[in-house]
């Protein structure tokens, strides 16, 4: 499994959309989503060319903590406790 964290999404988008467009970053343009969308398309094309079948996910929230931990925040909708009565 591969985990790819893009660490310069805003800079990439700034280079692509120019000075005027960079003012929209964070307001209208989600830099991470735009870069991920482009990467997903490139990965899909490359995988097809190599004959690789895969599921590729773009998800929001997980963060790398150092080199050995991945933090995945979860929103719990409901919680239940199951007990066995003796």
* Total beta strand runs: 2
Major sheet characteristics: 2 strands, antiparallel
Task: Briefly note the structural class of the backbone.
Answer: mainly alpha
Helicity level, as a percent range? 25-40%
Unreliable parts:
none
List keywords for this structure.
single chain; 86 residues; mainly alpha; two-stranded antiparallel ribbon; 2 helices; 7% strand
What is the structure about, briefly put?
The chain is mainly α. The protein has a domain at 9-58. It is 40% helix and 7% strand.
Task: Walk me through what this model shows.
The protein is mainly alpha-helical. It has a domain of 50 residues. The protein is 40% helix and 7% strand. Strand 1 and strand 2 form a beta hairpin. Helix 1 crosses helix 2. The protein starts with 8 loop residues before the first helix and ends in a 15-residue tail after the last strand.
Outline the fold blueprint.
Elements: H1 9-22, H2 31-50, E1 63-65, E2 69-71
Antiparallel strand pairs: 1-2
Helix pairs in contact: 1-2
């Amino acid at each position: 499994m591969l985990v790819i964290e893009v660490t310069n999404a805003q800079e990439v988008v700034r280079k692509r959309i120019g000075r005027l467009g960079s003012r929209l970053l964070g307001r209208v343009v989600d830099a991470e989503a735009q870069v991920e969308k482009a990467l997903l398309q490139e990965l899909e094309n490359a995988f097809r060319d190599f004959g690789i079948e895969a599921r590729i996910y773009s998800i929001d929230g997980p963060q790398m903590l150092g080199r050995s931990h991945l933090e995945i925040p979860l929103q719990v909708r409901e919680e239940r406790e199951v007990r066995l009565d003796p």
